[in-house]
Amino acid sequence: MRIVAGMDEAGYGPLLGPLVVCCWAFQVHDDANANDDWWQRLSGAVCRRPNDHKGRIAIDDSKTLKGAKGSAAHPLRHLERGVLAALGSMGSSTNEMIIPDGEAALLNQLSMDGPVDLPWYEQTDPVQLPLCHTRDDLALAANRLRRAFDHAGVHPIGCRAVLVEPKDLNRIAHAAGSKGAVNGWAAMRLASRLRATYPDVPIDLACDRHGGRMHYREELARAFPDAVVRVMDETERASEYELRETRGSMRVHFETEADARHLPVALASMTAKYLRELRMARLNAFFAHHMPGLAPTAGYVQDGRRFLAQIEPLIASTGVARECLVRAV
After folding, report:
1. What is the mean pLDDT of residues 238-267?
2. What is the pTM assigned to this prediction?
3. Cβ neighbours of residue 198 under 8 Å, at least 6 residues apart?
4. DSSP character for 13?
5. Which pairing describes strands 249-255 and 203-208: parallel, antiparallel, or unpaired?
């Protein structure tokens, strides 16, 4: 038995809202590893295309599956179906499938941290789930995924997430002198948690590259002080490392476009994006309550500046601390 996992983020570039980093882990019962084409292994239930005539579940880079703003269908429909069906498929039978019924339950299941005391989370109601599917439809999709996983000798064992709000993001980036350090900090928390949960099992962890970075050995050595970290490869395409400890080994590789090659990374990308969208919906709801008619924002730089300019009178009147809202890096 071995663990194959994938990690990715959503929200690295925006001005507003959290950075979300997720890690999905799978137990495999043969010599499968993160380099296998899992889309082919799971082709009876999984595809890349958002609209499949066979009704399969789309799993791909979140940017590919998120719908356009203003479209007739809900823009999160493909992300939601994939993420919630994958979570539901972790049950060993149809009766054991648990699909979260709200944002609070989803965060309680996935987040490594507790509730955040920000006004847009404290003064708005958590979103009820699912947003754009029936629970029966999601249960059918989850059951289809579970059967495909069983047939392929793959079993999803969990997903964990780190959500870094602007205040913490600013603090970590300032201390390290780089915004890229925030991504690394969150990734190492997730990798350490994975290793601690499965200390005796070989782990193969694929991660999307953190920007243009090529070297990760020192970061891994700090996160795993009891391990011998060996550099296997550091090229333009991929950086690969082997970590050896007394009780087990771990292989970690950071790749460009990892979500296009590794299904667990793609599923992590989808989950991170889905969580970030739910968090941004709360932020938008809070300010729209105080300023009816305010157009929502996804938080990216250009529109984030528009949003900030419009809510400037509210920042003081609602007692919102700017450093809790706006990223400084």
Report:
1. 94
2. 0.96
3. 3, 25, 248
4. S
5. parallel
* Residue 291: its H or E element: none
**Residues in contact with 138: Cβ distance below 8 Å, sequence separation at least 6, in sequence order:** 81, 84, 85, 88, 99, 130
Q: Output 230 or 246, whichever has higher pLDDT.
A: 230
Tokens 């289809």 belong to which residue?
A: 144
The CATH homologous superfamily for domain 2-282 is Ribonuclease H-like superfamily/Ribonuclease H (3.30.420.10)
| Cα–Cα distance, 199 to 32 (Å, whole number) | 19
Bridge partners, residue 253, by sequence:
206, 240
272-281 burial, b if ≥16 CB within 10 A, otherwise e? bbbbbbbbbb
Work out the pLDDT band at 68, boundaries 50, 70, 90: confident
Residue-level pLDDT at 35: 61
Task: Measure the CA–CA gap between 264 and 258, rounded to whole angstroms.
Answer: 9
In the DSSP assignment, the letter for residue 71 is -
pLDDT reported for residue 112: 95
What does the angle CA 223 – CA 110 – CA 103 come to, to the nearest 5 degrees?
145
Q: What is the pLDDT of residues 134-181, one digit of tens each?
A: 999 999 999 999 999 999 999 999 999 999 999 999 999 999 988 889
- Who contacts 187 (Cβ-Cβ below 8 Å, separation ≥6)? 7, 21, 207, 210
